[in-house]
Amino acid sequence: MKELTLVYLVTEDKICLALKKRGFGEGNYNGYGGKLEEGETILQGAIREVYEESLVEVLETDLKKVADIVFHFSDHSIRVHTYFVYAWKGKPQETEEMKPFWFSFAAIPYEKMWADDIHWMPRVFAGERLVGEVTFAEDGKTIEAMEWKKVAGF
């Protein structure tokens, strides 16, 4: 199973969601992240992906793990290590892959995100830490099954 990273830039009252311009998840708002390169740790991959997709620099020590989610699609499964980061250097910029937008927590466009996001993100904003498993239908968008477990921390 491939290990991926997902990082959200978060302030006291807003979250940066980036519109995916190409590839897997195109057209959805999401955080920054992706596959690990050979020899990278999860945290190294998270830092690299954030920089490549936003030109923002983050430090390993500032990444706060909020969820660990396994996604099952019809042809593959992935494990996504999900982080919030509250401190960074630079301003998110549009890149070939992502275009950043800031949203208040009350105005997050869940209808333009992955279908599972509305089920776990509000819980994480409330302070929970979650382990989850989500199975998508053949269309890759509709949820067939999901399970969430609250954990003490990572």
Number of alpha- plus pi-helical segments = 2
Q: Unreliable stretches, pLDDT < 50, 5 or more residues?
A: none
| Tally of separate domains | 1
The CATH class turns out to be Alpha Beta
CATH topology grouping: Nucleoside Triphosphate Pyrophosphohydrolase
Care to count the β-strands? 9
Percentage of residues in DSSP E strands:
35-45%
Helix content: 10-25%
Question: Could you please describe the fold and organization of this structure?
Answer:
By secondary structure, this protein is mainly β. The chain has one domain: Nucleoside Triphosphate Pyrophosphohydrolase, CATH 3.90.79. It contains 2 helices and 9 strands; from the N terminus they run E-E-E-E-H-E-E-E-H-E-E. Strands 1, 2, 3, 4, 5, 6, 7, 8 and 9 form a 9-stranded mixed beta sheet that branches. The two termini are 20 Å apart. The model has no long low-confidence stretch (mean pLDDT 96).
Notable characteristics:
single chain, about 150 residues, mainly beta, Nucleoside Triphosphate Pyrophosphohydrolase, nine-stranded mixed β-sheet, 2 helices, globular
List the helices and strands and how they pair.
Elements: E1 2-10, E2 14-20, E3 29-30, E4 32-35, H1 42-54, E5 63-72, E6 77-85, E7 98-104, H2 117-125, E8 129-136, E9 143-151
Parallel strand pairs: 1-6, 5-8
Antiparallel strand pairs: 1-2, 1-4, 2-3, 2-7, 5-6, 8-9
